[in-house]
Amino acid sequence: MIRAEGLRYGDIIAEASLSVAPGELVALLGPNGAGKTTLLRLLLGLSTLDGGRVEIDGKPVAKLSPAERARQVAYLPQTRPVAWPARVRDIVALGRFAHGSAGRLGSTDAAAVERAIDACDLGHLANRAADTLSGGEAARMHLARALAAEAPLLIADEPVASLDPRHQHRVMALLSQFVAGGGGALVVLHDLDLAARYADRLIWMMDGWIVADGSVAETMTAATIAAVYGVEARVTADGVTVIGPV
């Protein structure tokens, strides 16, 4: 489990407390500039807190080495550039770096890479140069890299950004499979319908504050959407329809 209490960071994060446990997919929602990416970096120990504490598996994140953190939490950042035309398989293998095995894979690491490639349906692309992939294929490759770490928790920052609807659902289905297998995931999303369909719990952010945290039924309401996004919306069993600005 990852647990955060009373996080503060400059004027970006005013007060934030949350937890993510194995077996749940948590969607982090909020408008641009709400502090979502900064919050993820604080959870991972990539930025220094001004206040509060973060624990991963009961241990303060600040006391974990980068390799220890990476073995506990796989991270899929918002920006995922490919700097050279490496093979898809080699990029997925970078997910084993925290195990000291990105260069020469032992049998355990090679098996983890193959499981991630199979889970993301990349077998037919494994030897392709990464810079020749489509947007949807590249998204699955980066997700496979995170899954190859076989960490118990996964944090993903906008993993479906710029993808067409088919590939958005495909990536979310892969995250759901990870959670169904016992993992825990915290995922930043902007699509409310995707969040309602796939998430077990929703965390809503606005201006550096967590303003709601609960199930889809409890928090996916017209009132919450109006307060957080400033838009009028109709919420039904079929999804969310945005009507316009409040």
How do the strands and helices of this protein lay out in sequence?
Elements: E1 2-9, E2 13-20, E3 25-29, H1 36-43, E4 51-56, E5 59-60, H2 66-72, E6 73-76, H3 88-93, H4 107-119, H5 135-148, E7 153-157, H6 165-180, E8 184-188, H7 192-198, E9 201-206, E10 209-214, H8 216-219, H9 222-229, E11 231-236, E12 239-245
Helix pairs in contact: 4-5, 5-6
Organism: Sphingomonas floccifaciens
Domain ABC transporter: 2-232
Pfam families: ABC_tran (PF00005)
Describe this entry's structure for a reader.
By secondary structure, the protein is an alpha/beta fold. It has one domain: P-loop containing nucleotide triphosphate hydrolases (Rossmann fold, 3-Layer(aba) Sandwich). 34% of the residues lie in helices and 28% in strands. The chain has nine helices and twelve strands. Helix 4 (107-119) packs antiparallel against helix 5 (135-148). It is globular.
Biggest sheet statistics: 6 strands, mixed
Rounded to the nearest angstrom, the distance between the terminal CA atoms is 38 Å
Strand content: 25-35%
Report mean pLDDT, rounded to a whole number: 93
Residue stretches low in confidence (pLDDT < 50, at least 5 long) are none
Proportion in helices: 25-40%
Shape: globular
Instruction: Give the number of helices.
Output: 9
Number of domain units: 1
Based on secondary structure, the structural category is alpha/beta
Instruction: Please give the radius of gyration in angstroms.
Output: 18 Å
CATH homolog superfamily: P-loop containing nucleotide triphosphate hydrolases
Please trace the helix and strand order, writing H or E for each element.
Answer: EEEHEEHEHHHEHEHEEHHEE
Please list the strands of the largest sheet in the order they lie side by side. Answer: 6-7-8-3-9-10
Total E-strand runs: 12
In the CATH hierarchy, what is the architecture at level 2? 3-Layer(aba) Sandwich
CATH fold descriptor: Rossmann fold
| Overall CATH class | Alpha Beta
Organism: Sphingomonas floccifaciens
Pfam family, one: ABC_tran
Domain ABC transporter: 2-232
InterPro entries: AAA+_ATPase, ABC_transporter-like_ATP-bd, P-loop_NTPase
